[in-house]
Structure formats: C-alpha cells, structure tokens
Amino acid sequence: MRLWLHLAARVLGWTALAVVLLMGMAAMAGVVEGVRWGTQAALRLATLELLPVVVPVLPVACAVGAGVAAARVAALGEAVALEAMGVPPWRPAAVAGAVGLLLGVLGHEVHQRVVPSAAEAALALRIELGSAAPPAGWLWTGDLLLRTRDGLQVELGEGRVLDVRPGQGPPDRDQVRRARALREPVVAGPRELGADLLPLRVEAALRRVRALSCALLAALAWLGPGPRQGARLAPALALGLAFQALSLGAVAMAAAGQVPVLPGTAAPALALAALLALRLSR
C-alpha cells in the first residue's frame, strides 16, 4: 500500500506542477494583454480568465505529469526495483490512471461550479474596461430572439418567424447567460447545460468524458511508447496535444450535427482506450 501511495504522490506532484505551469503561461498572456489598463486591472482580469483557459486542457497536464513522474521513477532506479519485485507494468500505470481520474473529476466540478461565474465576472470587467462590447440589439437563446431594449420576443422556426410577443422589460440574467453559453459553451453553467440545445448537449457530454480521458492519458503516458524506452516527456506531451486536437475536431463535428453527440465526444477517449489496450498487449 505504501508503494502505491508513493507512486500516486509522484504523479500528483508532477501533474500539479504541470497545471501550475499552464496557469502561469495563461496568466502571463492575460497580464500582457491587460497591462494597458494598469497593473491592478490586468492582474484581476488574468485571474478571472485563468480557469476558463486551463480547465479544458487538464488532460494535457495529466499526460505530462504522469510522463515526467515515470521518467523520474526510471532515473532513480525505482522502475528496475519494481521489475525485480515482479510488479507488472500495468499496476503503476493503473495508479497513474487513478490519479488522472481523480484530477479529472475535480476539474469537472471546478468547471461546473467556478468557471461560469469567473467567466461572467471577466466579461463584466472587460465591458467596464472597454475591451468588450455589452450585449447590443438582439440575443439568441436557442428558442427565442430577444430585443435587449424592451425584451420583445421573436420565435423562429423552419426558417421563418412563428410568433412575435411583447416583452416584459429587458432580458433577465438567465436569458443573457443562455445567450452567451450558446456562443461560448465552455463557460456554460449547469443550468444552461440542462437546455436541450445541440451546442450545450455537446459541451455537457464533453465535460463528462474529460475525466475518463485524464485517466487514460495518464496511464498511457506512464507506460510510454515502448517497454524499454526511457523518454517520457516528449511522447506524453505529443500524446496530450494530439488528443486535444482530435477532441476539438470531434466536438466541432458533433456541434455541427455531422455525428451524434455521444459518439462524437467519446471518440477520442475510445481511441485512447484502444491505444492503451494495444500498449498493454505488447
């Protein structure tokens, strides 16, 4: 038990370092962009926009963290000791996968509970600073077109106007949030993800699959490309970036209606599972 906790701590530590590095790069980019508004405003904007940028790429951090941890275990001779003890390679990989799954679940909760409010505050700050325009003219909520001035409701369907109803005042906060979630599903909250709208259903499915992807990437990165291959960082980074690119493509196809939602969002994770099974069979 102590051995597995030691390996889990290694993976967790290096993955945490990878996440910190990602956050540092994202924060630096935000500060550079916002420095023209002053240091305080730049730091506040960078902090608010940190999680919406980093959480979606958490699988890459899990891959890099597990790969570096495996490299350190090999460099310290611990991998040879494990082999001498008769420990099969899949067991340490399973520990790395468990850590990746734990971080993936944690990332999902952060995405659901923290990212939407942080993104909303960041948008409000950008409007205040003049970097983003406030909602103007009309808002599309997926089923209604709302006029921001007076809340006039225009129902559209089948390429034509179905109904026009007078509004009860400007759109409320929930309607504004849904309109933004349709434009940027990554910042949608649990309430918006419950809507039966294709972009939001794709985003909800993607978030559920991401935790499993973190686990699969961590296990694959721990095993490396070959049984005698010492390099881990470069293959792990390449694997994480390839997965991210494949995931973006699959999500775009699902959001466009070219493939069903669940198969489209789960395809990259299924590819990782097949690759892991192939690697373990060698």
Order of helices and strands: HHHHHHHEEEEHHHHH
Number of domains: 2
The overall pLDDT, averaged over residues, is 86
Give Rg in angstroms.
22 Å
Shape: elongated
Into which percent range does the helicity of residues fall? 55-70%
N- to C-terminal separation?
A: 27 Å
Please outline the major beta sheet: 4 strands, antiparallel
From the helix content, strand content and strand pairing, which structural class follows?
alpha+beta
* Tally of contiguous helical segments: 12
Q: Count of DSSP E strands? A: 4
Work out the strand percent: 5-15%
* Strand order across the largest sheet: 1-2-3-4
User: Could you name the ranges where pLDDT drops below 50 across 5 or more consecutive residues?
Assistant: none
Please, could you describe this protein's structure?
The chain has 282 residues and is of the alpha+beta class. The chain folds into 2 domains: 2-129 and 194-280, no CATH class; 138-188, no CATH class. It has 12 helices and 4 strands. It has helices at 2-34, 39-48, 50-54, 58-75, 78-84, 90-113, 115-129, 173-183, 190-193, 198-223, 233-255, 261-280; strands at 138-140, 144-147, 153-157, 160-165. Helix 1 (2-34) crosses helix 2, helix 4 runs antiparallel to helix 11 and helix 10 packs parallel to helix 12. It is elongated and about 75 Å long. The two termini are 27 Å apart. The model has no long low-confidence stretch (mean pLDDT 86).
How would you sum up this structure in a few lines?
By secondary structure, the chain is α+β, with helices and mostly antiparallel strands. 70% of the residues lie in helices and 6% in strands. The protein has two domains: 215 residues, no CATH class; 51 residues, no CATH class.
